[in-house]
What we know:
Layout: H1 7-23, H2 28-37, H3 42-54, H4 60-73, H5 79-88, H6 93-100, H7 105-123, H8 128-141, H9 146-161
Helix pairs in contact: 4-6, 5-6, 7-8, 7-9, 8-9
Amino acid sequence: MEANIPAFLLGQILPKMEKFCAFQERCVYDVKMKLMRMNVEKSQWDSIIKYLQENNFLNEERFTELFVRSKIRQKGWGPVKIKMELMQKHISPSLIEQYLSGFETDNQQTLLHDWLMKKYASVQKEEVQKQREKLIRFGISKGFESSMVFTETDKIIKAHLKK
């Protein structure tokens, strides 16, 4: 494999790309963008990517699994937003579905409810229609399906109107 890679790539570009991929999980799209910023000729990209994959610096499946897990746990994103971000990184739809399918509806509802309750605290003093609009916009911006956002928003507002 290394016989097909020019010497300047072996000496300068590959160590930088190894470090880039070792620092944080990356996908092929991230590597291509980095190579473009480094002004590496496109004709060399495939051999660099192949080298990184063969040496386990680059793995789309591992990237997708970690991306989904971290966006749910650390950022609290919903499945719609996660899916869109992964599509922008040119991850295959089957891989996206494989890892998003583990994000169960119950977990999504709990996460959405928690987000909406936090948001509700900041819009409590506004009129009901404004509260509803802001909660819905917020829930959708977090990446949850609109039907789930509408349902959860209505539950929260009705619960607080009864008080």
